[in-house]
């Protein structure tokens, strides 16, 4: 038995399939092994002449998927928060006429710009982070110890005692960050501060300016309001304006990053709520 079959002896559907799959030889014959493969293929998928079979009509989807609906709602929330930073979920729900559960879910990608109902009112007392509180106590202890060896206690005298190892404590610059000024730090423990502090140890930014920097950072959607992104953002804008580090912001404004973010959002909210 010949191992090849002429095209003329094959059904039209087989010839079409063999041509599409490039199984025909130059002499327009088909090997019997390929013929068996084609037979199994056509038996499995219907054995009809595919070239003339009507194409399936694609189903037109008219309803959005849940993910598409949520994504669209997230975009609307983002646009609203751009104008109303510090809004609550309830306020967003009312403004967009959308159910609160849907708003709560869709708002997660932009939740750093949202205030909780319990965050709308500023606490009567600022809660200081444990780290800053401990450092402040170390500074007071160092100032009292230094005053036993130098009085009045100038910043130069304090620095000399630090470098000699006779006292242990934060640097002068750190103390200024914690207390606002050298004289204020000395006054907090009843120590005479001596001469005025050198200008290079004065604070570069006041609280108003620091809140302004945090606001600019929170408005950058790329960083999602994450504290570990602050210094990265700072590096991108330092070429045009000197920006404080996250450490400086925390030292002067006090509290955790969450506290600082919340306080900043309250200030941003006041601009549109009033």
The counted number of beta strands is 2
What helical percentage do the residues reach?
40-55%
Query: What do the pLDDT scores average to?
Result: 83
* Order of H and E elements: EHEHHHHHHHHHHHH
Given the structure, what is the number of helices?
Answer: 13
**In angstroms, what is the radius of gyration?**
37 Å
Report the span from N to C terminus: 96 Å
Number of domains: 4
> How would a textbook summarize the main sheet?
2 strands, antiparallel
- What overall geometry do the principal axes of the alpha carbons give? elongated
Structural class call reads mainly alpha
* Regions with little confidence, pLDDT below 50 for 5+ residues: 50-54, 197-201
Query: Which strand order do you get reading across the main beta sheet?
Result: 1-2
The percent range for strand residues is under 5%
Key traits:
single chain, 274 residues, mainly alpha, two-stranded antiparallel sheet, 2 strands
How is this structure best summarized?
The chain has 274 residues and is mainly alpha-helical. The protein has 13 helices and 2 strands.
Describe this structure in words.
Mean pLDDT is 83; it is low at 50-54 and 197-201. The longest helix has 18 residues, at 66-83. By secondary structure, this protein is mostly helical. The chain has 4 domains: 4-45, no CATH class; 66-119; 137-199, no CATH class; 207-273, no CATH class. Helix content is 53%, strand content 2%. A two-stranded antiparallel sheet has the order 1-2. Helix 3 (66-83) packs across helix 5 and helix 10 (207-218) crosses helix 13 (257-273). It has helices at 12-20, 32-45, 66-83, 89-96, 100-106, 130-147, 155-164, 172-179, 182-188, 207-218, 230-237, 246-253, 257-273, and strands spanning 4-6, 29-31. The chain starts with a strand and ends with a helix. It is built from 13 helices and 2 strands; from the N terminus they run E-H-E-H-H-H-H-H-H-H-H-H-H-H-H.
């Amino acid at each position: 038995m010949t191992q090849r079959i002429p095209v003329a002896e094959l059904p039209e559907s087989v010839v079409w399939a063999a041509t599409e799959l490039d199984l025909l030889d130059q002499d327009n014959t088909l090997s019997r092994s390929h013929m068996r493969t084609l037979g199994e293929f056509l038996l499995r998928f219907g054995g009809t002449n595919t070239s003339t079979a009507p194409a399936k009509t694609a189903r037109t989807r008219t309803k959005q998927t849940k993910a598409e609906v949520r994504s669209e709602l997230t975009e609307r929330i983002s646009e609203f928060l751009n104008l109303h930073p510090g809004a609550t979920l309830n306020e967003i729900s009312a403004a967009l006429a959308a159910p609160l559960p849907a708003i709560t879910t869709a708002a997660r990608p932009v939740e750093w710009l949202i205030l909780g109902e319990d965050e709308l009112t500023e606490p009567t007392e600022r809660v200081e982070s444990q780290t800053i509180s401990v450092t402040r106590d170390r500074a007071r202890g160092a100032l009292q110890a230094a005053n036993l060896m130098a009085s009045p206690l100038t910043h130069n005298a304090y620095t000399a005692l630090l470098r000699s190892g006779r006292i242990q404590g934060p640097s002068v610059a750190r103390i200024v960050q914690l207390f606002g000024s050298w004289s204020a730090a000395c006054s907090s423990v009843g120590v005479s501060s001596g001469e005025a502090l050198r200008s290079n140890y004065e604070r570069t930014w006041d609280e108003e300016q620091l809140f302004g920097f945090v606001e600019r950072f929170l408005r950058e959607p790329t960083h999602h309001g994450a504290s570990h992104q602050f210094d990265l953002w700072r590096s991108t804008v330092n070429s045009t304006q000197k920006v404080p580090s996250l450490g400086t912001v925390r030292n002067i404004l006090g509290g955790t990053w969450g506290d600082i973010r919340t306080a900043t959002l309250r200030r941003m909210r006041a601009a549109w709520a009033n």
